[in-house]
Design brief:
This protein has seven helices and no strands. Helices cover about 70% and strands about 0% of the residues. It is rod-shaped and about 90 Å long.
Length: about 150
Amino acid sequence: MCSDPKQRPSLLTDKVMEPAVKYINKKFPNIDFRGNNQHLTCIQRQKSEVMATASTYYDSFLDVMEFRSINFDFTKSYLDLIVTYTSVIIMLSRLDDKKVLVSMYNCAYEMTKATCESSYPRLSQMFIEYEQPWKKLSEDFGPHMR
């Protein structure tokens, strides 16, 4: 957009605006807009046009800033989730009698209700899959390593 002279906003190519453009580039971001600054007189004279022309760009830059903030928050939350998930799986792998405990529970459940507890097959399968937790975690997160 701004690198191609033909596509640059007229504010940036107008000879009348040249002193303001140079001054702002030199002083950015600490520009004294309130003082009696001769470099900014052209903006003062055309402030409505400047606002009309620059508002779309300004709003787009604000959107980028907001997206960056949202993206950062999302990424942080996602990474927190991965750390928590990994911690839970590692902690679970350190419980020696987990298979016996869930099997005993399912056995008592089946003796009482005459049917297998509905989550037992999935829970058993998870214990089998995570017998080597680091290997399984690397498989789970494989798509993130590409």
